[in-house]
């Protein structure tokens, strides 16, 4: 019987094919072009099996067939939803791309569970999205486990869009790099280890990339806000600076990406609850996504200049740690009253933003797991006073499915952080639990003078539970692909 389980061996090859929901009550399944070709090679056997094996496949569902083709021991047929879908204004994403990612991921994971180690994937009319679904779905962090997940090599089947497939592979590998860094335990990914990992990833692109790993330089730059966060830790802080020069015009103003790099966040003296504190190994998600996006841009050889900044440190409690009520001085001379040492991300970003503007960037995007007071798990929340930049970000997020959501940047929030008893600014504001994501953005705005700046708070999408069906549970690596898509948009149309 084709539908029952079979013995698997390491030499098994699998195939993932797509099928659309049928239009109307009559007629059989609507196969993709690649699935149609496969079906013809079997004299219609696939179509017949789909008709007799159960109800029509719904979006994201799959059905497995064994032994129907000499080259493929297992064939997973996956539901793509309706063929007529596209960009959905209500959902703020391209539904067809999301459906392809979800379906292909489901098929690939099903084959991976059967220990199939080579899979050919139907491009489903959008090879880039198919590649993203395959590689994002197959990723699982098991580096420190004795028993490893089956490693699956995925390649395009039945399509000539190899360029789109390879682009999708690079987009997904970039996001998987961010996931790898975010999942790793904090004793493995220290600030120094993080910087070394990114340097290693960028080594093949040395002709276009310059990397600076700075230590004592942080003090020379008088980054008092950054230094105040790292004081309690025994791990040395690192200021990672990456220059990707992809534009043929060396004078082109760069896109500046700044990522929060707290490799472990205990909260400092304002200690976090112990429950789920282990997840704070991923509090460097901003730095991980920023650096991974530059690795991807370099792999794609995007014709754009990008500078990435990642202030890297731990936030730990000790006799040397910053105390609530202390006042620190940022690089631009502004004084900050630190009323909550667990609101540390904005402090390290403040100094990084001040420094980054010395490069006269065309646009600035900072990315951070900043606040838990406004967690909306299906999207990346953000603020910007630049309509042009926000539109670029929004357009990129529709393509990738990350979905950015713009929050207000009212003067009301600025007053919350500038009304400080002891200093120019307060790091949490008068009402620390009210509109925290907006007050955090208002705080960062005090350190930005550039005309085009956006802040992305990714705390709500740091990990994936079941929000994104084409990825397993764990750290998400979002919004790496959106940052790459933003850079690509600026390169080609900006």
Features:
494 residues; alpha/beta; Leucine Aminopeptidase, subunit E, domain 1; Aminopeptidase; 2 domains; six-stranded mixed sheet; 22 strands; 34% helix; 22% strand; elongated; disordered N terminus; Peptidase_M17_N
CATH-assigned fold name of the largest domain: Aminopeptidase
Give the CATH architecture of the largest domain: 3-Layer(aba) Sandwich
Largest sheet: 9 strands, mixed
- In whole angstroms, the N-to-C terminal distance is 56 Å
* Rg, Å, rounded: 24 Å
| Superfamily (CATH H level) name of the largest domain | Zn peptidases
Strands, count: 22
Overall 3D shape = elongated
Would you identify the regions where 5 or more consecutive residues have pLDDT less than 50? 1-9
Give the number of domains: 2
Category by helix and strand content: alpha/beta
In what range is the share of β-strand residues?
A: 15-25%
What is the number of helical segments per DSSP (H or I, 4+ residues)? 14
The percent range for helix content is 25-40%
Q: According to CATH, what is the class of the largest domain?
A: Alpha Beta
- Overall mean confidence score, pLDDT: 93
InterPro entries: Leucine_aapep/pepB (IPR011356), Macro_dom-like (IPR043472), Peptidase_M17_C (IPR000819), Peptidase_M17_N (IPR008283)
Pfam families: Peptidase_M17 (PF00883), Peptidase_M17_N (PF02789)
Catalytic activity: L-cysteinylglycine + H2O = L-cysteine + glycine; an S-substituted L-cysteinylglycine + H2O = an S-substituted L-cysteine + glycine; S-benzyl-L-cysteinylglycine + H2O = S-benzyl-L-cysteine + glycine
Family: Belongs to the peptidase M17 family.
